[in-house]
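Please, is this right?
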Amino acid sequence: MDKPKKTPPRAEIYSKEFEEGVTLSYKHAKDLIESAEILRDQGKHSSATVLALHAAEELGKTAMLLDEIAQKQLWITEERWNEKYCDHEHKLRRAHLAVQKNIVKITEWKTTISWGGSNAAKKVVPEGEQMKRYAKYDVERKLRSLYVDHGLVGGSRRWISPLASVGFDADSNIDIEFAKNCCEAIKIEAAEQGITL
């Protein structure tokens, strides 16, 4: 009995469309950052955080499209689009990588692991693992900034609302600055491909 032929992957986006996607994603991210700054200035830090992290994610997508151009890919398959380009953590990992590579230029990641003392051990963490941690934290922070929740704050459980942020969630400046750094990093990567943003 003959095996059924495997259907070839369907091309979703062709290379001639990559640069347009880069430009549109970048412009959209810039608009999101501007909106985040307006919300921050109105004291709406949770909403500003959501938009800033969404901008960083959009810039991660931009970087991924630039990767496709650099690798001279002919198309992005529907399967790859759904698997990578629709994955929030994957896009944020790529955004963090762009900043690390082009802005911060960290060559070795070290993380401190503490078991409750000042003699905490240090171990080297592979760059990819650190990017995954950052991306996971960003996705969690973005979601936490969107919804009313009940959780642990200052040692006791209580309602947590985006309308009355506490702790790190009460300041969106870090997220806005990260998104701006992503913009700068992506401009550098685009210039390497002959694209001016």
The radius of gyration is 20 Å. Residues 45-70 form the longest helix (26 residues).
